[in-house]
Amino acid sequence: MSEPLSHCARLVRSADHDRFLTGLFAPARLREHLYALYAFNVEISRIPELVVEPMLGEIRLQWWREAIDAAYDGGEPYAHPVAIALSRTIRQCALPRGPFDAMIAARELDLAAAPPASLAALEQYALATSSGLTGLAARVLAPGDPDPAAQAAIDHAGIGVALTGLIRSIGFHARAGRVYLPRDLMIANGLTPEAILARRMTAPLRQLIVTLAGCAQSHLAAATAIPRLLLPAVLPASLAKLYLRQIFRNGFDPFQPVRPIPAYRRQIRLLWAVLFGRL
The whole model's pTM is what? Predict the structure, then answer.
């Protein structure tokens, strides 16, 4: 990008650098719409980090519901740079309302800071949040509903990205006093939320991580029927595969710093995916 970055692009670059990089592979005329979506995702996903009481988080989520109401009702956009950009994107790209409602509703679960009951429940959460965002991005790139095969690939890619991100965030969440690992997997491996909050790597936790990473890998492997036109929306899945390699290594410890993958390596990976049309 040679021109100055917009507010949304700057926010995404600082808070979700992977999606910022993937946006650069979209047609220039559509990038700002993608960054508006990704900035909205940043805004609602970080709410639990910004509030000390769940009620305050509910108020912030309700504010975003009303901002989206205004966008769909044709009213003036709320005086917030991301809300203004998002309203423009919703109108110009004719985006459906449902995914936004589902994303906000799912984020209410974050405020409870309670582990999901099962892996299936976690996958449903990922479907509403990560897959929902990916689906909206796909509609920016190609108006209308994707065909069923492409939609299935979008759903799988979003879930795989979300599960990978959850594993990488175990330590971050534990430091904040939160555990989002599925209860059924914790029980199966003899773990409790308190054991995770103790922030010590153990053999049972390692086994849980391997199981969850395997599930993420399976979803990513199923994300194959992606038309080239939609590829920029699904590119985070290509980077998730890089992160899974780190996770599967024997020395991976979510409570210890992991050497970040340099931006140039991530960019090469994305370029490879775009050139060959494969995640």
Answer: 0.94
